[in-house]
Amino acid sequence: MISKSYKRSLLLGGILLVAVFYMLSKEPREKKFEGKTMGTTYHVSYIYPLFSNSVADTSKKVYDSLHDVDLRMSTYRENSELMRFNRAPLNKPIKLSPAIVAVVKESQAVSALSGGAYDVTVGPLVNLWGFGPKDQDPKASNKHDKHDVRAPEFIDWMLNHYPVQVPSKAAIEKARDRVGYRYVIANTENNTLTRTRPVFVDLSSIAKGYGVDQAARTLDDLGIDSYLVEVGGEVRSRGKKADGSPWRVAINKPDLSGGRPEAIVELGNKGMATSGDYLNFFELNGKRYSHEINPVTGMPVMNRLAEVAVIRDTVTEADALATMFMVFGDKKGLAFANKHGIAAYFTYHDGHGFKSVASDAFKPYLVAQKKH
Questions:
Q1: Residue-wise pLDDT tens digits, 200-223
Q2: Which residues are CB-contacts of 162 (< 8 A; sequence separation ≥ 6)?
Q3: End-to-end CA, the chain
Q4: What pTM was estimated for this model as a whole?
Q5: Which residue from 141, 264, 334, 363 lies 20 to 30 Å from 93 (Cα-Cα)?
Q6: 3-state class (DSSP) for residue 9
Q7: How far apart are CA 179 and CA 199, in angstroms?
Q8: Could you give the 3-state DSSP secondary structure of residue 44?
Q9: How far is Cα 256 from Cα 94, in angstroms, rounded to an integer?
Q10: CA–CA separation, 92 vs 176, rounded Å?
Q11: Number of neighbouring beta carbons within 10 Å of residue 100
């Protein structure tokens, strides 16, 4: 027979348990944290599961995942895995982490899809046109001064280092000899990369997207199934907010004026990356030269496209595709996106301001679109 004292203990325990659950239910479930990584900032919002890791612990794990990508793939760091590979002998397979090999392999898939319009070895041409270091020698000093585009003072550096004249055809051809994604062999079975020519691999057009995916994977591993992760403008979402509404993301106007966004989208369980030319460009003799360089022609992009946003299953792929579309331009890009079922949103100069157009695959994600 159960004693009265035991029944009393059960009752008190039940009351205490109910009280704990009540207190937890009153606690705001949406948590946020932010930080700096990869030369930019990141922000994370997520729905806090009961009895999960603390916000501080979750924040640390996400930071560690982003920092790991930076340590491996940064060209800012002379001792990163990527920079060690860029210094490695030619025709010798170099053992690297599966992450780098996978990202290079992904970049090459987009390169092949684009016919070479996207290429992570385009650095020598970028430098030639004044949008990179004067000498992309991997052995060069890594002092972060105003002459190093990798420093935060990039814009000041660029304003003082425009090319005084357009490079000659001979100089462009010489730089093109050092460009070519096919000169890097990625072996995902052995996790090796091999350079067959002295190309310089720069993953800045895809690594940030990969970082977002890794941060999202970290949250998944922690049992968090509703979140919004943003790193330097690249985003990925999953699930819904605490009130049951979907996560929404703004596509901002491609200038520095602020104001009403160009569009609002609901990503669902997808990722989105953007690329634009409204910050990095120069004008010479009435012509506008973008920092986006076409690896095939060796020339800066001179189309009217100002910005493009791409939605894909992974931000890694979206990041690379966004750069590809900047090279294509809005007309060719829209036709390409519709042909291949790619969700892309193009904002372009029309002589009086900006206009936007969405591919067929992008339209289902649109919640609101600015009327021009």
A1: 999 989 999 999 999 999 999 999
A2: 130, 282, 284
A3: 79
A4: 0.83
A5: 141
A6: helix
A7: 6
A8: strand
A9: 43
A10: 22
A11: 24
